[in-house]
Amino acid sequence: MVIDPLFPTCPIRNILARICVPDTLCLIQLLGLKGSATYTELSQDMPDYPLSVSLRILKEDRIIIDETNEYRLSSIGKELYPLASTLILWCYKNFLPRQQK
């Protein structure tokens, strides 16, 4: 777990420092939708480098579980999934460039 040196006791800053790595929230959403997937299956939806980094981070923080080369959300990952999905939807709704008419 990354600990923010300026705010070492702030759980919000410390978890966001981990899950806000590029593509990590998308990986949580993807596993939440699929239920479980192999590395090969996940690599069809995500580039290899961010995927391997995100998997390592999420395994270290016990957000995902790797059982027999298949990844799935742990119990805390399942708790995080609807929150991550809501944040992703909010970002798409509010920050994607709007079509010019």
- DSSP summary: helix tally: 5
Distance between the termini: 46 Å
As laid out across the biggest beta sheet, the strand order is 1-3-2
N-to-C series of helices and strands? HHEHHEEH
Query: Given the helix and strand composition, which structural class is it?
Result: mainly alpha
How would you describe the shape?
Answer: globular
Indicate the low-confidence ranges by residue numbers.
none
Proportion of residues in extended strands = 5-15%
Mean pLDDT: 87
Largest sheet: 3 strands, antiparallel
Proportion of helical residues: 55-70%
Concise account of the structure shown:
With 101 residues, the chain is mainly alpha-helical. The protein has five helices and three strands. It has a three-stranded antiparallel sheet.
Could you characterize what this model shows?
The chain is mainly alpha-helical. It contains five helices and three strands, in the order H-H-E-H-H-E-E-H. A three-stranded antiparallel sheet has the order 1-3-2. Strand 2 and strand 3 form a beta hairpin. The chain is globular.
